Amino acid sequence: MALWDVYYTVTSIEDVAQLLREHAGEARIIAGGTDLIVEIQHGARTPSALIDVTRVRGLDDIRLGEDGLLHLGPMVTHAQAAASPLLQERALPLAQACWGVGAPAIRNRGTIAGNLVTASPANDTITALRALAARLTLRSTRGERTISLADFYTGVHRTVLEPDELLVDIAFAPLTGHWQGIYLKLGLRRVLTIAVTNVAIVLRMERERVAAARIALGSVAPTIIRAPEAEAALIGNPLTEESIAEAARLAAEAARPIDDVRGSAWFRNEEVAALTRRGLQSLRDGDARLGLPQPEEMVHLWGKSHHRPRLSGPTIAHHAAGDEPIQCTVNGENVVVHGANGKTLLQMLRDDLGLLGAKPGCEEGECGACTVWLDGVAVLSCLTPAPRAHCASIVTIEGLSGDEGLHPVQQAFIDEDAIQCGYCTPGFVMSAANLLEERPHPTREQIVTALSGNLCRCTGYYKIIRAVEKAASGLPD
């Protein structure tokens, strides 16, 4: 059964606006698809058309504009934002929030704009951008409008975005001079976790006293909220233990959490206070980075490529019921696939090409068993539409070995006995091999980060990490 009727690959914002108008509320924009594909699979959304914006030039820009504001395009991914020296220096809470999203393959596809539009109250980037007082520019064939992020949300998964509008710009003032900020998150595990609570704090200090304060709270109300009483209590005061404790108490009072599977309302209130206290103390003590790696130390599983391919020419439409072929390169061979236009990339690889290495596990982006390389970058094929592979290059576990034999990672997995039931192994191998493309001699911490999106139910992690270390030790400098 096709997941959608028609899939458009567009090459301009004008194309997007026109298609949204023509489809009258039945179309959805897709960039990363890390939220949308899951919603479609579960029937939460049933769009007849998807509009792919990943080939539009300029939508992934991060820049400081002539207006003095930082501007992010709608195709900026979490990985790009986390690794941006500009954002780490002048918008640290956003860089921290993006680094805390999912795991490498999720961050490689998921976009900040997509998260904003999904409008989850547990979202990471909304909380950071709320504290940064961001504003959004929306466009349609009727023109443009700019609104504050605070006015964008009307409830859980609800926004003021009209069916024919798209988000084209995210803008906010950089944290310079006496401004500083921080983002903190509590999840049920270190990675691949939705926030139980999160807090973003932005302060302006003058002569060691707080001159302005913004505290945003996530996962404690139907939308991301501010804590105005806590903010007011900080103004004019130094960051002493007493003033910090009072602000933390008032922040917890601003929260309106519910009980759910991730935590009770009581627990969330306690954690709002704890995260607010820790954030203010870290800002006072000059420790706002909280261990965020420097851009040059980060692991993204980008392989040797940092750029997406570009298409030129008119809009391309792949109709699910039609016979428009998907033409791409898979494991070095040119292939033409018919009948896969309404499928995910994982389904196309397995059902149409007979490549069974990439495994269907959770099919929600949480296990990593379906990891493949899309134009050199590690992605989750269960969350990638098959038409996105048109004119792209795909590498699966079947294409990893070459004329000289097994890939060093494959051989190391055998040598170190790093395989138990084997179901998760292709995903681990693809992530590890991509890591060694990016960093031939990674640290153990970088290996752990690279593999953080791959789950092994047999708990074979120690041998898996040892195998990656062994493979790396045999590579030339």
Structure report:
With 477 residues, the protein is of the alpha+beta class. It has two domains: 62-134 and 141-295, CO dehydrogenase flavoprotein, C-terminal domain (Enolase-like, domain 1, 2-Layer Sandwich); 321-473, Roll (Ubiquitin-like (UB roll)). Helix content is 32%, strand content 20%. It has 17 helices and 20 strands. The strands form five sheets. A five-stranded antiparallel beta sheet has the order 4-5-10-6-7. Strands 17-16-20-18-19 form a five-stranded mixed beta sheet, with helices on both faces. A four-stranded mixed beta sheet has the order 2-3-1-15, covered by helices on one side. Helix 11 (241-254) runs antiparallel to helix 12 and helix 14 (408-415) packs across helix 17 (461-473). The longest helix is centred in the middle third of the chain and has 20 residues, at 265-284. It is globular, with a radius of gyration of 23 Å.
Concise summary:
It contains 17 helices and 20 strands. By secondary structure, it is α+β, with helices and mostly antiparallel strands. The protein folds into two domains: 228 residues, Enolase-like, domain 1; 153 residues, Ubiquitin-like (UB roll) (Roll), CATH 3.10.20.
